[in-house]
Design goal:
Helix 1 packs antiparallel against helix 2, helix 1 packs parallel to helix 6 and helix 2 crosses helix 7. With about 300 residues, this protein is an alpha+beta fold. It has eight helices and eleven strands. Strand 6 and strand 7 form a beta hairpin. The strands form two sheets. Strands 3-7-6-5-1-11 form a six-stranded mixed β-sheet. Strands 2-4-8-9-10 form a five-stranded antiparallel β-sheet. The chain is about 25% helix and about 25% strand.
Length: about 300
């Protein structure tokens, strides 16, 4: 039987090997290493938790002014994704977002006074957004410099089933998910691929914001059926102490043709405050390759 140290060494070796291995081989090896590791799915919004009106809100940002929904959603299949990311390989689009608009300037590496465009997306009525999470550990937050406690989503059943090996693997995966070395992306993209086999996305801390905010990577399949663009705000911002202060200059809403209609003015009620993160329900813990819901 392998020890936690054996698993740690094997994961480290695979993370390096994944830089040149085919994606399918990396995934096959990782599944063998993680045999028995499990994680509970987290359900964001949807009935019956908050009724038909329960929604989760996700923000995306860009620097160039958009005029169509396709410009602010995930890159379309017809357009090759130029760069790999924490949850995607080159040529494989993923919808990256944040749970707070305050994370956007950090993610875009923007500077004080710069003009940004922040889109606000919500889950559609009667749509569950099932996610896993990676990087939300005490050690990962300490590495990033975030003075916050990690969330812990678990039922009593999950707590009873947690083992030292399971918690050790969770911490090991977290370290790679908060790595600033882009050479680790093939490995973290494989973790993402496995996590969304029966789920829709992965929550992880914003490395650009030093772990103070959480990001989410969502599969395009769920975006197409489960997310709805509410509006896009044209803003300037400034960093002030430990917060980000926004000024809304204009807003746009989508039409039925997928276009954005600008000129609504900056008087959108509630722009300056982030909506609270919605309540969460936890599924019973199961072996994670089989958790979640059918697409």
């Amino acid at each position: 039987m392998t020890t936690v140290d054996d698993v740690g060494a094997a994961l480290k070796g695979l993370a390096v090997a994944s830089r040149t291995l085919p994606a399918s081989e990396t995934k096959s090896r990782l599944l063998r290493l993680l045999d028995g590791y499990f994680q509970a799915s987290v359900a964001l919004a949807g009935p019956p938790m908050m009724g038909d009106g329960g929604v989760a809100t996700v923000f995306r940002g860009r620097i160039d002014k958009p005029f169509t929904i396709s410009e602010i959603s995930y890159p379309p299949q017809a357009k090759v994704v130029a760069l790999a990311g924490r949850c995607n390989r080159q040529g494989e689009p993923v919808f990256y977002g944040s749970f707070t608009q305050s994370a956007i300037p950090y993610e875009l590496r923007a500077t004080d006074g710069q003009r940004l465009y922040i889109s606000r997306w919500t889950t559609r009525p009667r749509q569950w957004l099932f996610v896993n999470y990676c990087g939300l550990t005490t050690s990962a937050f300490e590495r990033l410099g975030a003075n916050r406690e990690p969330p812990f989503w678990a039922t009593p059943q999950v707590v009873q089933e947690l083992t030292a090996r399971n918690m050790h693997i969770n911490s090991l995966l977290a370290e790679y998910f908060v790595s600033q070395d882009e050479q680790d992306y093939p490995f973290t993209a494989t973790v993402y691929d496995i996590f969304i086999e029966k789920n829709h996305g992965v929550i992880y801390p914003s490395v650009a914001a030093r772990g103070f905010f959480d990001n989410i990577a969502i599969s395009p399949k769920f975006v197409d059926r489960g997310l709805r663009l509410q509006r896009v705000d044209e803003v300037t911002f400034r960093f002030e102490s430990d917060s980000v202060v926004f000024e809304c200059l204009d807003s746009a809403v989508p039409n039925d043709l997928g276009q954005l209609t600008w000129g609504r003015g900056p008087d959108i009620v509630g722009f300056l405050s982030d909506p609270p993160l919605c309540g969460m329900l936890i599924n019973p813990g199961q072996w994670w390759p089989t958790i979640g819901v059918d697409d």
